[in-house]
Amino acid sequence: MDEILRRKWHLLFMIFILGLLIGLVVCKPYAAPHFTGEERVVSLKVPAVTSSKGVMVNLTTIVKPGSGKILVAVNDILTGYTAQSSARNAAKAASKFTGIGLDDLDIIYLIQANASTIDGPSAGAAMAVSTVSALLGHPLRDGVTMTGSIDED
């Protein structure tokens, strides 16, 4: 009886070791996502509202090695505090989603619009999605557009 029990435990142990070895060979270890270092650019159209009509705004997100800056770049357009705050929230949300830290990256949101002022949080979702796309190196499909605000959490 003891001999049979010992053989069963021996067989069970051998199966366990075999499974462990197969698992080590077949399964890749988890590697946290990371930014590879080259500049990445993602562009999309974002709907916006001016004082008199709706317009499509060009949003270009640039992620590149840097010192942790989050910038909103516009040409001849007044940018309000809420839009700038939305950019910071989008970058922080993208960082949390991807697990990629922003301390050694610069993120630049280039906004080109036929408007005199830009404000409000409605481009936040587009900024977050474009930042995730750039951080992970997964391009967005052509024709993607969106609107909506986002919180950093």
Describe this entry's structure for a reader.
The protein has 153 residues and is of the alpha/beta class. It has helices spanning 2-26, 81-98, 124-136, and strands spanning 40-49, 54-65, 70-74, 78-79, 105-112, 117-118. The longest helix has 25 residues, at 2-26. The radius of gyration is 24 Å and the shape is elongated. The mean pLDDT is 83.
Provide keyphrases for this structure.
single chain; 153 residues; alpha/beta; 4-stranded mixed sheet; two-stranded parallel sheet; 3 helices; 37% helix
Q: What is the radius of gyration computed over CA atoms, rounded to a whole number of angstroms? A: 24 Å
Structure annotation, total helices = 3
Note the main sheet: 4 strands, mixed
Anisotropy-based shape: elongated
Q: How much strand content do the residues show?
A: 25-35%
Helicity level: 25-40%
Number of strands: 6
SSE topology string = HEEEEHEEH
- How many angstroms separate the termini? 61 Å
| Overall pLDDT | 83
By secondary-structure content and strand pairing, the structural class works out as alpha/beta
- Residue stretches low in confidence (pLDDT < 50, at least 5 long) are none
Strand order of the largest sheet: 1-2-5-3
